[in-house]
UniProtKB/TrEMBL annotation:
Transmembrane segments: 52-72, 79-98, 104-127, 139-159, 165-183, 248-271, 291-311, 318-337, 349-373
MF-aspect GO terms: transmembrane transporter activity
Keywords: Membrane, Transmembrane, Transmembrane helix
PANTHER family referenced in this protein's UniProt entry, alphabetically: GH07001P-RELATED, PTHR48021
Residues spanning the signal sequence: none
Main location group: membrane
Location in the cell: Membrane
This protein's name: Major facilitator superfamily (MFS) profile domain-containing protein
Annotated InterPro entries: MFS_sugar_transport-like, MFS_trans_sf, MFS_Trehalose_Transporter
Annotated organism of origin: Heliothis virescens
GO annotations of cellular component type: membrane
């Protein structure tokens, strides 16, 4: 089957989006489990201690995913993507066959490891294989599709058995695995490995042979050839050079800030424990508030995907972070003042603040951070792997920038556009490539 370069890019992006749909289901699945198991109408009995394990093990199980960048550098992006999808599928299988809490927790461990690994693999693969005009939208669509998975599981979990929900959400991950087998390998990874002929072939398959693509390929290959020439004699010297270089330290710090904003923003606990939080605040379960939060999460991600076409990702993220902080602070202060008797008992007010928090969170701070973080680390360093002011002042806007331009920003301190008059001396394959 002959595919155009654009179709191959959509194949890569589409498979990551299918995996994101299943990964979104993974995030909301503990909420469904906790709600249905607490009803005591299943063979599995749940207490507070076991319930806390179901809700928290997802994050702890993701700690080994820190090794995924090394796997990506050693085996390539395609292998790492398929491996991450398989981990998620194994998690869904365990939850489907579960007859006790232990099996459910094992399934959630695979879910945590798979989804946390998938984020790094998907974002890096998309940032390396898609042209800049498609890349930012595709990265944000990953978050949008993931939000669709979160919202869908939150809604259908009220009407379907938790095993049925797991079976449904396993299907996208299985399809993503099959599509992943059709991927070309990342040109950036092939160039990093010194396999320049294969890099050229993969780049042509993905990006075509237009003038801009030729310039970007030349910049990519020349950059990696220079790296190979100046590579240190020993691995220890190479590691020392890496961790002390400007183009590693600054992106690493900015990535640390962005990832911390995403993880410590409060979105994950609110999604998982939203039912319990609403009951604690209002004294009764508010189905309308829960449904509104599920819908707003998906709608907000879609709005964010549109906004970044007209505003920079950085400003959109700042707006989202500020709004979510205000509403979460409002929920906290309101609840406290009601308990000490300063305010009259109006439990709906705190619930409204919680809904507002989800609305602003979905507009950027839970999705844009990953997309920027996946772009700013130079390819050669990807295996080594108060925030408002830092983000506004220092983190560059990556919209429609090539990976080489972003790398130059951290090396030189400013963006260096590709020379429009630069002659392209990288030969392109003459024969037709299927």
């Amino acid at each position: 089957m002959v595919l155009s370069p654009v179709a191959r890019q959509f194949l890569v992006a589409g498979s990551t989006h299918l995996a994101a749909l299943s990964a979104g289901g993974v995030i909301a699945y503990p909420s469904v489990l906790l709600e249905q198991l607490k009803a005591n109408d299943t063979i599995i009995q749940l207490d507070l201690h076991k319930g806390s394990w179901i809700g928290s093990v997802h994050g702890m199980a993701g700690i080994p995913s820190m090794l995924m960048p090394f796997i990506m550098q050693y085996r390539g992006r395609r292998f790492a993507f398929i491996f991450s999808c398989v981990l998620i599928i194994v998690g869904w299988i365990f939850t489907y066959i579960a007859q006790n809490i232990s099996t459910l927790i094992i399934g959630e461990c695979f879910h945590g490891l798979g989804t946390n690994s998938l984020i790094a693999v998907s974002f890096l693969s998309v940032s390396e294989m898609l042209q800049p005009s498609y890349r930012n939208t595709s990265l944000l669509l990953y978050g949008t599709i993931q939000a669709l998975g979160i919202s869908s599981v939150g809604i259908i979990g009220r009407y379907l058995h938790w095993k049925t929900v797991g079976l449904i959400m396993c299907s996208p991950a299985l399809m993503a695995t099959l599509l992943g087998c059709l991927w070309p390998e990342s040109p950036s990874w092939l160039a990093y490995k010194g396999r320049f002929k294969e890099c050229e072939q993969s780049f042509v398959r993905l990006r075509g042979t237009d003038e801009e693509s030729k310039k970007e390929l030349k910049a990519l290959i020349n950059s990696q050839k220079e790296e190979l020439k100046i590579k240190s004699v020993t691995k220890l010297q190479d590691l020392k050079h890496t961790i002390t270089s400007r183009d590693f330290c600054l992106p690493a710090f900015h990535t640390f800030v962005l990832i911390n904003v995403t993880y410590w923003g409060g979105g994950m606990p609110v999604i998982i424990y939203s039912n319990d939080m609403i009951m604690k605040i209002s004294g009764a379960f508010n189905a309308k508030a829960k449904l509104t939060m599920d819908i707003l999460l998906f709608v907000g991600y879609n709005i964010a995907s549109v906004i970044v076409h007209y505003c920079s990702s950085k400003k959109t993220m700042l707006f989202s972070m500020t709004g979510s902080a205000v509403f979460m602070g409002g929920a906290t202060v309101t609840t406290y003042l009601e308990r000490v008797g300063v305010l009259s008992k109006e439990p709906e007010l705190a619930v409204y603040c919680l809904v507002g928090f989800i609305a602003f969170l979905s507009l950027g701070s839970s999705c844009i951070g990953f997309s920027i973080a996946s772009e700013i680390m130079p390819v050669k360093h990807r295996g080594v792997g108060g925030c408002l002011y830092i983000l506004y002042t220092y983190v560059p806007d990556t919209r429609n920038r090539t990976l080489k331009e972003i790398e130059d920003f951290y090396t030189l301190g400013h963006f260096k556009a590709l020379d429009k008059n630069d002659a392209v001396d990288v030969p392109f394959i003459k024969s037709e490539i299927d």
